[in-house]
Protein 1
Amino acid sequence: MRLFDTLTRTDHDLVPQDGTTFRFYCCGPTVYGPAHIGNFRTFVLQDVLRRTLETGGFRTLHVRNITDLDDKTIRDSQKAGQSLSEFTAGWAAKFHADCGKLACLPPHIEPSAVAHIPQQISMIEALVAKGHAYPAPDGSVYFKIASFPDYGRLSHLDTRELDLGKTQNVRANADEYEKDNLSDFVLWKTRRPEDGENFWASPWGEGRPGWHLECSAMIREYLGDSFDLHSGGEDLIFPHHENEIAQSQCSCGGHFAAHWFHITHLLVDGGKMSKSLGNLYTLDDLAARGHTPMEVRYVLLGGHYRKQLNFTLDSLGAAREALNKMAKAARQLATRIGGDSTLEEGDLGPFQGAWDSLQNDLNTPGTLGGIFTGLREAADLTGVDAAKALAGLNRVLKALGLVLPDAVEDRAADIPPEIQSLADERWQLRQAKDWAKSDELRAALAAQGWVVKDGKDGYALTKR
Ligand code: AMP
Ligand code: ZN
């Protein structure tokens, strides 16, 4: 498959360097609260990349870290009155549960920053020894960006009129800083009272690693000095990934990532998501409004990863309709199959176009469109042809990680009678246009883990 590379700004073929396994790294979540659907745009697209490679016959090695040590996790664990490890373990578990609901495959290796302190310290030692890092008077250690002429290639600094030569004595101690602050960044932060219990011994005294270092150290540990692809949301291009490249190449040599895959940020209602605007949605927020994780996944797949995607609550309703339509057509196709359904290599029948879109710079909206085109073309197929078409459809759905909703009647057997009667009562209220009461019952059902979806002639109940 071909994919756009942020560094060279062109498409490249994705092929494993070692000839067998595509080895890639994704910057993982900072576990200090629930992930929002913007985060999930990035994680879902990374999942589709992996699934597409695997469905296309490659093996993969997927490493994604857990950021359990930075300014934010320390600050919020203290607010919560919990130890850092207790606090981050809770949010990591929540993240895993949400990923499961969204059908994101778990990475093969999921290392955490706290579990790799020695590796981070030895990377700093190597950088100091080679003259790329220096201790400041307070005991913190900084990376000297002027010592690495390639600094800024990924984020195209040369076009941003920032001068590496002017960074003498300009230092950033915070984990996150702005796009136009070109500065030496912190590798080791000397112990401060606000860090509480969270400090470790090092050759430069007690303290903790800076945030950018963890990925470099864990990548070295699990993928070595050269690997196939590195990924994150677009906000990570600068400074985080720029800093990772500097740390890794200066301490270890090697090519680091052969390919950079960045996902454009999700917008909500046309703007940036923020808590204060009340538009920062989590999966739970959307479930409380009756939306399934698959509907969320469908919406996230509905935009090309290099283009802006604007999330609205209405788009979830449209996703529900699209999924139901897809599911209905797939069920009809399944009733017409006969004979042998084994797929020959490279033969996806009417779903070839959908598959080709994925191969072409992970064009997920093109793939969704291709599925509907394929379903229309398959409408007259029977026997072996229908079987082949269905196998082709399933291959594309697997790559997208989409699980189609069951027919309403398929689900009925699992519903407890008291839930069924609540849902029936709600349907009656809706028919009577008593929206307030019917919404109350929707919330009551949601509280017990049931999601109601309304159709024209009835409703579907699914367990969350
Ligand atoms: P964080 O938990 O903040 O470390 O972010 C986890 C991942 O989500 C990173 O790859 C971020 O770049 C990505 N991310 C954060 N906000 C958004 C957004 N609005 N849209 C897409 N990706 C995002
Ligand atoms: Zn990272």
Protein 2
Amino acid sequence: MKKYYITTPIYYVNDKPHLGHAYTTIAADILARWHRMRGAEVYFLTGTDENGQKNVEAASAAGLGVEEYVEKMSARWQETWDSLGLTNNDFIRTTEARHKKTVEKFFKAVQKKGDIYQGEYAGWYCQGCEAFVTESEAEDGKCPIHQKPLKKIKEKNYFFKLTAYQDKLLAHIKKNPDFIRPKARRNEVVSYIKNFMQDISITREGVEWGIPVPGDSSQVLYVWFDALINYISAIGFADKKTKFKKYWPADLHLVGKDIIKFHCALWPAMLMSAGLPLPKQIFAHGYFTIDGKKMSKSLGNVVDPVELSNIYGPDTVRYFLLREISFGQDGDFSAAKLQKRYEQDLANDLGNLLQRVLAMVEKYLDAKAPKPTRENIENWPIIIEAMDNLDFTRALDEIWEVIREANRFIDQEQPWKLVKVDSKRLAAVLYILLETLRNIGWMLLPIMPTTSEEVWRQLGLEPTKEKQKKFSQAIKWGGLKQGVKIKKGKSLFPPIDVL
Ligand code: MSP
């Protein structure tokens, strides 16, 4: 059976989950569900990044011990994903023993290769980014992203010979045009590797909370060096050979555009040094902004995904995030845009279609599905191609094309007239509409899973049974059997007045 290993970045625990984080994780969930439904054995990983000095400070501000603090905050992230119905198979925490063990093993492999040396480092550091910021990037001595004063750091560290991998990295990127997507990000990474990449300090002195350097407990490993390794600790690099062999290399690391240098240069170089294969693809999506500014705790403009989901339901949030912004580009969030999408696309187009069709089947056909037809409404090939290509916006455009086409078909055929003159055509028209709705259920399953199931339930189908079908069989026209009794239920998207 084909496998599909997909990851999200692991999130810093000193922040609480906001809509920007949910965007990455929901996109990964959609892909995980998509590949599961296509029959792959999926491993969907997310988790929390828990080491580093900033957690010590955050814990003390919260009046808690660090261990207690990271435990509490990490649980909050998992609870958020649970309440949004996300289907991650695993949740990795970088304070877990399985991770520490992996990091130690990995460090030793890189050391053995001769890629670690001691040196002195001096520079301006941003704790929010957990990275050094150059003089030219800094704005009035502050981090351009977090707008907080930078710290001058000068210390003896261990370095990783990142520059030793410059040629190999460039060659790999050239040979594998889809390794970094979208193209604009690939160009950005290539320019960084060619012009700016330097060896990187991978340890810190005087940090109390982190993984000690094997053989030198006076230093801990730099959070990014430790965090990237999570992608292999979760699947058993340290001691689960079969599992590791089965899932590595990852099929996709999904990340935000802010962290591409780490994922597209440092991580692949680390893997090359340790003698491991590289992930197949890294896809960087854009920022979610509020009035043009990146959503972040330090800017105080966060939108809580759980609050939104409590109002509109998780499916609406999923739909909105993926429909409104072309995947890979930046996009701006506004409550008015969400409300408009809810009313027009969801309530008007989809909700009404189901209601109209079921009302007519109830009224004209004694609530039973008629005989299958050959005539159909669909465009599966485009949707499959778009989903496989991570082009969610295009997939949704096409699905809505089917929905609108079905609505137009009702207006053209006018079943309320057919009932008086042509009962055969009436039955055919209503079958086409019912079977289109069953297919729409499949099209929406990875993106709006609750809605799909409700559509099927109202069509008189058993969602668990429907989902057991093999995808290629399930989407074949004619799957809805004659005589199935529909169960018209409540409206899919009832009016919500929040503005
Ligand atoms: N801990 C590191 C990642 C280590 S992965 C080995 C980190 N964490 S983070 O919590 O700050 O951010 C993680 C990811 O959240 C970002 O890369 C991005 O995917 C997502 N986003 C955070 N804010 C976002 C927006 N405003 N918009 C879109 N995505 C955002 O970096």
Protein 3
Amino acid sequence: MKIIMLGAPGAGKGTRAAMIAEHYGIPHISTGDIFRANLKAGTALGLEAKQYMDAGALVPDDLTVKILLDRVSQDDCKEGYVLDGFPRTINQAEVLEEELKKLNDKIDFAIDVDVSDEVIEERMGGRRVCVKCSATFHIVHAPTKIDGVCDKCEGETILRADDAPETVRQRLKVYHEQTRPLIEFYNNKGILRMVSGSGSITDALAAVIEVLNQG
Ligand code: AMP
């Protein structure tokens, strides 16, 4: 099963992608995570991606497509995968489609996680991430016991540069201009499925399975 998660930044794609990956026993592939891991390791790719990420912009397609295609060609992707944060442009979607076609393969479903911009601004502005273990918290919905200190490893929790309010607004603008057209792209192919990103997270996996079982 090959699944794409669509939705604005902060819509809850990542949480759902992780649940789906575990349920179907397939890898969860997040291009954002790959960039962040590269940045942590100090690679040239990570440093190049950082300037775009911190500005709320998209990393150029040539770079992003290459790392994604490398990743999905690995052995653990043979039975499928869940893509989280890729594609983010029509061009990325078309390149992926062409590469899969060469292998006589295709994406089975694109799941759009639907949330309003207002909810996203509130969610991301309140998000805090541990600099040491990357655990995430929220100042209102999932606060740390001690302000600014990670519950899991006692590392410092911070507002990620790309979660800062002005960056979030920029990311939403980029989303509406460049990524949202993918909803129509996959709808036209008959593989788009919609789920709400506002409901309880405990029901999220069941909601996804339900739309996938509709065929
Ligand atoms: P995410 O964790 O998915 O929100 O991604 C964080 C940042 O990584 C984004 O704001 C972009 O700067 C960059 N990024 C991740 N995936 C892509 C992609 N498919 N195309 C371009 N940039 C991306």
